[in-house]
Specification:
heterotrimer, A mainly alpha (about 325), B mainly alpha (about 290), C alpha/beta (about 250), A: about 325 residues, mainly alpha, two-stranded antiparallel sheet, 13 helices, 4 strands, globular, C: about 250 residues, alpha/beta, five-stranded antiparallel beta sheet, 9 helices, 11 strands
Chain lengths: ~325, ~290, ~250
Amino acid sequence: MSPTLRTIAWLGTALALAAIPPLCGPYYTNLFLTFAIFSVFSVSLNLLLGYTGLFSFGHAMFFGTGAYATALALKHVSGLPLLAAFGVGVLAAALLALALTPIVVRVSGTAFAMLHLAFSQMMYVLALKLYGITGGEDGIGNFPIPPLTIPGVGAVPMKGEPANFYYFAITLLAASLWLMWFFTRTPLGQVQLAIRENARRTDYLGFKVQQTKAVIYVFAAANAGLAGSLYGLFHNLVSADGALGALVSFAPIINIMIGGIGSFLGPVLGTAIFQLIEELASRYTEHVELVVGLLLVVVIMYAPMGVLGVAKQLRQKWRRESTPAGALQKSP
Amino acid sequence: MDPMTAMYVAQGLHGLAYGMILFLIASGLNVIFGMMGVLNLAHASFFMLSAYLGYQVAALTGNFWLALAFAPLGSALVGVAMERFLLRRVHAFGHMGELILTVGVASIVLAAVKSVWGTESLQLKMPAILSGRVSLAGLDYPVYRLFIIGLALAILGVMTLLLYKTRLGKIVRAAVSDAGMVNALGINIPLVFMLVFGVGVWMAGVAGVAIAPILTVFPGLADQVGMDAFIVVVTGGFGSLAGAFVVSLIFGLLSSYGVQFMSQLAPVLIVAFMAIVLAIRPHGLFGARES
Amino acid sequence: MNILETKALAHDFGGLQVLCGVDLQIAQGERHAIIGPNGAGKTTLFNVITGTYRPSAGKVYFKGRDVTGLPPHRLSRLGVGRSFQITSTFGRLTAFQNIRLAVLARRGIRFNLLRAIDAMDDVTSETDAVLARINLGAERDRAANALSYGKHRALEISLALASDQELVLLDEFAAGMSRDETHDAVELIRRLTEGRTVVLIEHDMDAVFSLADRITVLHRGQILATGTPAEIRADASVKEAYLGEMEF
């Protein structure tokens, strides 16, 4: 794509994003924002899953940490600026990841997946039980959301102003997405792929596999925390089920599988599709789980590379290029 | 015995009973993973399905024993069907594919169960003979829980015998160690897999019917007990039956004493135990490193 | 100084003695082949030197330093590289990406998060240069797994050789290769190992005799003979060892 075309595309996207609140009204704006939050969350998981081959079944840990940290900060620290509270959320998620790296970089495969499921389940239980801190099942609700102070512009109110909050959140989410995109384009991004393909060889070549994994892990966690923090602010409510439940860990996996594990934007597409399906399913049937379950089974059996993967295969077949071993091979 | 000791012993027996149930479920999960490398997250769903089927059989016939005999078989059949038609296809994609598939199946089972039986708690009555109490050195203890312990030990005994004293058992043990090699020796490995899978799910099914009179039959059963069983497997170490046994018992006891003495924090105790074990030994207490 | 030395190296697998009293001496800069009939212990020797196994007895010295039992990645950092008999590349990445990783490793670029890799022209051109030298220029954007066997092996060897390690150990590089492919691989190795020390285990005698400066013959876990290709060719005990293994 030529640079001019690219700039036009960027501007177009930015304009489209900016146009959503006035054009679509509050209901659809909120829907879109939910989509955006979970897209970023899913992409952050894919940094681990698709790019590095680390299968986490408990990514909700970081999402939830971000949400709770921000909510707690706003609840207990009066006068805390909005951006600072947000920063606390991101930082908390990153620190949690950092604390876990000594254990996490030593395992891979199923052990990694299960470890994460276990830890995230533990956090869920803790959140439910430590009523005094987390509000238990009810969670932390209706905490103060201060206006955003933009130097030169003044204080922009957030609470009760969906449009304002949308612009605030979407900017941060877009920044996060861009950062993650750039991450995959750096030399470290290449080492990431190498670890996924052949960790031993990567080690023999002289790369520090464990340290690299640690960096990727903390980065992915920070972005998940970012999404979580915004989610909490968005709903003005943070609860164990909403931020730490098993579903919160499974949803990004589903999004990634549907959209396509092998590409950066796959999870974004998957989030859109899945959210659509969930909306439709919940309107027409009570058995949402059935739909979700069937979807998962069908996708993994017949289209494990997701929609984008299928599209790529079709394109290649159409171009009659020989397909490099594109089919999903035995995962590391 | 004096009331204090009686209470401790009673709680201990409760814990033992629950631990045995956990082990029946966890051992299937463990062996399946050890042999096939498959982590079956739908395992607890079959446990639950069997409880529901058991309820249905009992509702139709009024007989608990028929339920115990047939429900686990029905559930095992569904499990084997899943293995044969779904899981096998996905095996080539590695662990991730299997995990996702079984999560999907678990969702489907949950939806099916809810739509057929609704979301209310259902009662499966224990048989009259087992519903009394027996006197143990002055302690009045419910017979049924002793039955559970006995049943579980009996099954384990039979399984151990089968595994170590029969030719089939030898094949299975070899397959756990090196399926490829056994396959190369001309043994029909897919058949062995199916058999082991079926037996594993059957054991979980038996546990389902056995515990149903105590826990009642409801859609959250899979999540509740399943999570405990899963924690057992993870903490005990994949591929280690001894580990699963030890941890099942510890969990059963922790769970029951925890509920008695620190009821709010009992679940926290359990996950804390798991977290500590995993922090020190990420592959579980007795787990072997994944090759 | 000998870049690699083993002293009284011995290894057994629970009672089965596979190596016994092996005193190997590899001079700096030479190309040294280790050959021997099947079961002679070549692979075990290789695995002990590269740190895959810890020897039952004896020592391994690299540049005068005792490296016995050091795990492979430590050895790698000290300057000992190796290839694998079973091709071990980054399967789903392209040939270009594979080589680029080796180039990045060689340049010490491991944690760079600040630049887009596609913008690093010097890395790109070096990678393309290496690809050209190993005749994989045309397959630049093909996944490693999609390459023909010979080209895939060439990639494998290049990964071992692209880093700047002083000592490179090649484990049956010609395994499964056709005559032409072997010939190309020999040329490749010669070009990429100028000034470096190479130790190779090999069955293919043509490859051995065209590459090696010196040859060590292993037989039943012990060194039978060491010498130049000409000396070895003329050695009666070597012939006997090989012929003696053949069954009629």
